[in-house]
Structures are given as structure tokens and as C-alpha cells.
Amino acid sequence: MWLAWDLALWMAAALAGVALVARRFEGPRPRVISLFSQEAALIMVLYAIWIVAGRLSVYDIEGAYDRAVWWWDLERRLLLPNEASVQQAVLPYGWFIQLNNGYYALVHVPAMVAMLIFMWVRHREHYSSLRNVLAASTGVCLLLQLLPVAPPRFVEAFDVVDTPALYGQSVYAALGYETAGQLQAMPSIHVAWALLVGLFGWRVGGPMRWWGLFHAVATFLVVTITGNHYWVDGLVAALLLLCIVPAERQLRTAARRLRHAWSSTADVSAGEIMSSGTVADVTHCAANPQIASYQNAP
Fold first, then answer.
1. pTM given for the model
2. How far is CA 158 from the centre of its chain?
3. Does the N-terminal peptide bond of residue 207 adopt cis geometry, omega within 30 degrees of 0?
4. 141-158 per-position pLDDT tens digit
5. Domain boundary assignment for the chain
């Protein structure tokens, strides 16, 4: 369904080669090709890491079901809607369930890729921020997912139906994921990416604002209706973004100030060298009678 991780790495290597070759040429077009290829190579590497890490749950797999029960009980104490009740309300509508299954499987990655391309082409001033937050939030989510939590569709006591399996639309079966690779309900990368699309769509305004908002809300509901995530999975992803987005802004501002300070220092040093060189030349000329007489000659 999606690119294999090894193919993504080969594509990243090819794109990096294109970027290096384009740098050898002058002009605006080679520069654009080089920058675009460089960013595309980076995204491909991040994609490959995401695919590989998505197959791993390396710590305490046996406790994944106990942690699922703990989160389920916490949701009930927080008076969050019961995922099984929400799902039961729409299960009779097969077309709607299949639509949700398809949205979960097919929209997640293309929506983020489309937003990255849109930002790079139309709003370059926001692109680096989106890329940085995407990399950081995905990395943190993957680290947290190394402590596995069984999704609600895996726990029979929750009465949550595995709707993708029910209609033969399971993205995990298509990708060849083993059971251990599916014990990664907490936090939801689907929701984290969708919220990023919504956030940056809201920043740029226009039609993208409303499409991003729709995608964020729709993804939050879809991951629950399909039995892949709990409500808290999305809430934890949102809390991570609330921390990462301002942190990235502060770090980017600090980096910009550091570059400015370094540039100013370099300019001052260069000016001092030029000034000292000029003074030295004048002193040398004044001290040399032959040069001085030559300069004073009519």
C-alpha cells in the first residue's frame, strides 16, 4: 500500500544525489531543484524510520493489555465517551464504516505530504517549522510507543470491533505487521499528524484552514470508530504538540539570534582586518622614502 522502508531509503539517496549535482550549477532553477531534492530526501528518511519503528515494540509486550485496561479505566473516570458505544452507534451503516476504514488507511500519509509540498511551494516561511515539529513529534511518539499499549480492538472485554478486519481493509495486514507491531496505540501518530495539518492550515488561512480543521477532527473520530485508538491517545498527542510547537519556535529564534551574532562578529573581525591592513600599508609607505617620493611626484 505504501512504500517499503528500503525503497524509501533508496529514493532518499537518489534525491540527495540530485541535490548535490544541482548545486554544481548556477541560476535559480538549479537552486530550487537542489533545495527541493534535499528536503524530499530528508522526508523520505523520516518516512523510512517511521515505517521501521512502527514494527517494533521492544519493551514489556506482555504488559500491553494491562496498560490498555488502565487507560480504559482512566477514560471512564474522566467521563470520556465510551469508544464501544460510539462505534456501536455507527456499525449498522456499513458504507460509513468502510469510509472510515479507507480514511484511516489512505489519507494519513498523503495529507501530510500534501501539506509539506503546499508549505514549501506557497508558504516557505512556515515550511521549516512544520518539518521540524513533524520530525520531533513523530520521534517522541515513536519513543513512547516502545512501551506498548494494546489498541481497543485487541481487548475483547472492551467490545470494540476491529472494523478494518471486518471488511478486509486492514492496513496492518497489507503492510505485513505482526501483532507486536500493532501494540502501539499510545500516543496516536495519526492524530498528531492530523493536528499538525490543522494547525499549519489554520496559520496560512484560506481554504487550507477549513480543510486542515476538517482533517484534524475527522481523523480524531476515525481512529476511534475503527477501533485503532482510545480518546486519550489523541489527547496525549495533542499535549505533546502543545509542548513541541512553542519549544521549536523558541529554539528557532535562539538559533537565528546566534547566527546573527556570529555573522556580526565575523563582519566586525573582517572590518578590523581590513582597517589594520590599510593602516599598515600607510605606515609602510610613510616609512619608505622611495614609495613616498614616488607618490608625491607630479
1. 0.77
2. 32
3. no
4. 888 888 888 899 998 899
5. 1-53, 59-257
